[in-house]
Amino acid sequence: MRLDPDVRLDHGWISSRLPHQGRMCLLDEVVHWDLQRICCRSASHRAADHPLRTHGRLGVACGIEYAAQAMAVHGALIAAGAPDAPGAPDAPGVRGGLLASVRDVRFEVSRLDDVAGDLYCEATRIAGDRSTVLYEFTVRGAHTPLLSGRASIVQGAAARLAP
């Protein structure tokens, strides 16, 4: 499954498909993706003005947001590249999902801002249909796992919740 090879899946491409704008769009690029997996890269965790920093640090739990954004990008790629794939939105224009739950989260470190290299956010779709998707995710620095877990996404929830 490939998009147009002239389309670079960089921060601009990502931010045009996520509701997160400005500094809250945390991912820099899509490194790899297929119908089951995605891997995204980010260097934003080192930014002194990171929007999720509190008390001068970026706690490891913020890695869940990185993983959730990677899952959202995966959903956008599936919808764009394979509209009949399981879990693709029911109709054009139905965008986004809602992070419904995270389970079995393991934190291997206490913070992300002191990770010297880039973060790699990997998500693997393990089950799903047009209304919900279950992913396993890992956020790592180089080859070191920083956090991992599972997440449930409710598809199209933003549209259903709109007034």
Description of the molecule:
This protein has helices at 11-15, 63-81, 157-161; strands at 29-33, 37-42, 97-107, 119-128, 132-141, 144-155. Strands 1-2-4-5-6-3 form a 6-stranded antiparallel beta sheet. Mean pLDDT is 85; it is low at 83-94 and 159-163. It is built from 3 helices and 6 strands, in the order H-E-E-H-E-E-E-E-H. Strand 4 and strand 5 form a beta hairpin. The protein has 163 residues and is of the alpha+beta class. Helices cover 18% and strands 33% of the residues. The longest helix is centred in the middle third of the chain and has 19 residues, at 63-81. It has a single domain (11-161), classed as Hotdog Thioesterase (Thiol Ester Dehydrase, Chain A).
Strand order, biggest sheet? Answer: 1-2-4-5-6-3
Radius of gyration: 15 Å
By CATH reckoning, the class would read: Alpha Beta
Structural class: alpha+beta
Count of the separate structural domains: 1
Number of helices: 3
Classify the fold: give the CATH topology. Thiol Ester Dehydrase, Chain A
CATH 2nd-level architecture? Roll
Write the layout of secondary structure elements.
Blueprint: H1 11-15, E1 29-33, E2 37-42, H2 63-81, E3 97-107, E4 119-128, E5 132-141, E6 144-155, H3 157-161
Antiparallel strand pairs: 1-2, 2-4, 3-6, 4-5, 5-6
